[in-house]
Every structure is written in C-alpha cells, then in structure tokens.
TrEMBL record:
This is 9864_t:CDS:1. Keywords: Cytoplasm. Gene3D superfamilies: Tubulin Binding Cofactor C, N-terminal domain. It is found in: Cytoplasm. Residues 81-161 form the C-CAP/cofactor C-like domain. It comes from Acaulospora morrowiae. GO terms for molecular function: tubulin binding.
C-alpha cells in the first residue's frame, strides 16, 4: 500500500505542470492524509515491542569482518554502476503511429515491460484522421516528436526534451 501511495505522490508531482494550484494543494493534502491514515493503521496492527536488554557481542571481531564486507559491497556497486551505464542510442526507441482513423491512441501500451520505462522515445505521428493521441506518461521520456499529415486530430503531450 505504501508503494502505491508513493507512486500516486510521484504522479501528482509530475502532473503539477498541468494542474491548477488549488488542485495541486488538494491532491497533496489528500495523499498526506492517506499516508497518515496508513501510519495510524500500521501502529494499531503492529504489536508493541517488549523492552529487554540484549547481550553485547564482541565488537572487534565483528568490526573487522564488516569493514571488509562493506569494501566488497562498495566495489561491487561500483562495478554494477559501470555495467549499467549505457549510451543514448541503446536507450532510444522509436514509436510510430501511422495511417489511422477515428481511434484513441495511448503511449501506455508501449510501456508494458520495466526495460521500456528507462528509454527515451522518439515519436513519429503521420496521416491520422479524427484521432486522439495521448502521450502523457510520467514513466516515459519523449526525446523528439515528428508530426505530419494530421487532420481533425488532437495530440496531448508532456514535455519533449
């Protein structure tokens, strides 16, 4: 539930460009109230912890092993970061919407996999007649948009950059 509340808060934050200030405030207040209610319910359901003294472990022996473990973890995270660094071309994905009539087109159908959420999309729209194209999505980044031959159509888009 907390994950969904955080996702809702992120979507609201992303939508602040489009929402009036009153709606922004109301949305934020509702999300905060929801998070507070979750914390209250969690406190009611979680049993109270009992106070007890714990025996001390030998600090020096454990400290030496944890330091070497931390160094190994730091090295592995550096390796992971260097392995995940990719070029712009590898992340570029082209989406084309061509030759359609009387349809509603949404970008969400292209964001099924988790891999597609990190990509930059190059959108090509051409020869649409009486269509609505909704490209607003907080999980996707639109790098470029090419539009040609629209007739009585509406394109809804967030920032392109």
């Amino acid at each position: 539930i907390l994950k969904r509340i955080n996702e809702l808060e992120k979507e609201t934050t992303d939508a602040t460009r489009f929402l009036p200030t009153y709606d922004q405030r109301q949305s934020i207040l509702q999300i905060r109230a929801l998070a507070e209610e979750l914390n209250v319910k969690r406190a009611e359901l979680v049993p109270k912890s009992k106070f007890s003294f714990k025996s001390r472990k030998q600090v020096r022996e454990g400290k030496n092993t944890t330091d070497s473990d931390n160094e190994n973890k730091n090295i592995s995270t550096i390796k992971e970061i260097s392995n995940t660094a990719t070029s712009f071309d590898e992340n570029l994905q082209t989406i084309s919407y061509d030759n359609r009539q009387n349809t509603y087109i949404s970008m969400k159908s292209h964001l099924i996999s988790e891999d597609s959420r990190d990509k930059v999309f190059d959108i090509h729209i051409s020869n649409l007649d009486h269509c609505i194209v909704n490209l607003v999505n907080s999980a996707a980044t639109i790098g470029a948009m090419h539009i040609k031959g629209l007739k009585d159509s509406v394109v809804i888009s967030g920032p392109v950059g």
